[in-house]
C-alpha cells in the first residue's frame, strides 16, 4: 500500500504532524501527542473511484484497527454530520438515499460482527463503503439542486459567475481570443511580482496593458492576480536581498501593489491581492508576520481602489500540507485570523484542482467538496472558486517520479469524466448563494501546465465534452433578462 498523500488529523479536521510507516500489512502512525487522531488516505472503491477518505478519530491502541472497517465508519459518520446539518436547511432525503444509507449500515454492522475474522470484516466494510460513497454524493447533489432552484428564483445567477483564467502568452492568438470573447464575460489575468518587476523599481506593464486594453474594449470583466504570492516561482530574485528584513519586504510589497492597482483601478473589477500565504512562505515569515503581510497587502489595494472587489486566495484548502510543514497555517485558522483581525477584504478565493499527486491535488469526492464549500461559507465573505480544474486524461509526465498517484473520480480520468465532474461541481458551487464565481483554470491544454490535460479544449482547439457541458450550464442557469447589466453585486462594488 502506498502512503502518498496519507496523513493523520486531529480536532477540527486539522492535520497532525506525524510519521507514517507501512510494514507487514500495517500502518503505524507516530505523533507527539496522545490525543485521538484519524487517518486520511487514498482509497480505491470500484465505481466510486480512488479518493481520499478518512477514518474517525481513534484512541491509541496496541492492537491494530481494521482500516477497511474504520474507513467505512468514517464515511457513515460524515454522512450523519451532513445529514443533520442539511436537515436544518430542510433537505429531505429521497427514498433512494434512505435505501443506500440503510444498505451501507447493514454491511457496516456485518463488518462489526465479524471483527474476529479480519478478512470477512474488511469485505463487508468495503461493501458498506461502496453504498455510502454513492449515498453521500447523491445527498450532495440533492442538496445542490434544491438550493440551485431557490437561487434561480431569488437573486439568480449572472453570466459573470462563469470565468476562465487566461494564458497570458496567447495575446496574439486570434483563435484563442475569439473563444474568450464569444464564451466568457469574466476572466482572470494571472500575474506575479516576479514577472512585473524583474529589477527593483523597474516595472514592465506592457503585456498587462495589452491584455487589459483588449478585454476592456470587448466589455469583459477582469480580475487580476495574485499580485503577491510568496512561493519561490512568484518572488523577484532581487527581493532575497531583504529576506531577513520583514518590514522592508512588507513596504516593498505595499509599494508594488499600490502602483499596479492605481494603474488599472478604472478597468479592473476585482483584485486577487494575496494568495497562498497559508501554504507557501519562502521567507519563513512567522505566524504574526503572515497575518500582517496579508493585512498590509489588502490595505494597499483598498487605498488604491476603493470600488474594486478585494480578494484573498487560499491554496490547498483541506490543509494536507500542515501535516508536513510546521511553518504553515491550517487554511481555516488562516481565514479565521484574517477575518478576526479586521483585514478589509470582500471575498475569499478557494483553489479547487485535482488530478496530480501532491500540492493538495489528490482527488476528493463530492461530499467532501460540498462540506468544504459549506465550511468556507460560514465566514460571511463571498466565495470565489478559483483554479478549478480536473484532467481529461491521466498525466503521462514522469517528472522524475514527483507527479505521484493522484486518484480519480468514478473512473480513470477521461473527457467524459471531466465533463461530469465539471457539471456536478459547478452545480454544487453555484447552489450556494455566497459563491459568486467559478473560474476554470485552462481554456486550452498546456503540456507544461500544472495539469497536462486540464483544458476545456485540446491543443488544436477541438472542444472537449467539458466545454459543451459548461455552455449548457450557462444556458440553463444564467439570467437571460439581465445579460447587459454590470457585474452582479459581490464581483464589483
Description:
This protein has 493 residues and is an alpha/beta fold. The protein contains twelve helices and 15 strands. It has helices at residues 67-87, 95-113, 118-153, 174-183, 193-196, 206-217, 246-264, 287-304, 331-340, 366-377, 415-431, 465-477, and strands at residues 7-9, 15-16, 18-23, 26-31, 38-44, 49-54, 162-165, 186-189, 221-224, 270-275, 309-314, 347-353, 382-389, 408-409, 435-440. The strands form three sheets. Strands 7-8-9-10-11-12-13-15 form an eight-stranded parallel beta barrel, surrounded by four helices. Strands 2-1-5-6-14 form a five-stranded antiparallel β-sheet, with helices on one face. The longest helix has 36 residues, at 118-153. Mean pLDDT is 91; it is low at 481-493.
List keywords for this structure.
493 residues; alpha/beta; eight-stranded parallel beta barrel; five-stranded antiparallel β-sheet; 16% strand; disordered C terminus
The average pLDDT score comes to: 91
Gyration radius (Cα, Å) is 23 Å
Number of helices: 12
Detail the poorly predicted runs: 481-493
Helix percentage range: 25-40%
Strand order of the largest sheet: 7-8-9-10-11-12-13-15
> How far apart are the first and last residues' alpha carbons, in Å?
51 Å
Strand element count: 15
| SSE class | alpha/beta
> How much beta, percentage-wise?
15-25%
Sheet bearing the most strands, described?
8 strands, parallel, barrel
Shape estimate: globular
SSE arrangement, N to C: EEEEEEHHHEHEHHEHEHEHEHEEHEH
Outline:
Helix content is 39%, strand content 16%. The chain has helices at residues 67-87, 95-113, 118-153, 174-183, 193-196, 206-217, 246-264, 287-304, 331-340, 366-377, 415-431, 465-477, and strands spanning 7-9, 15-16, 18-23, 26-31, 38-44, 49-54, 162-165, 186-189, 221-224, 270-275, 309-314, 347-353, 382-389, 408-409, 435-440.
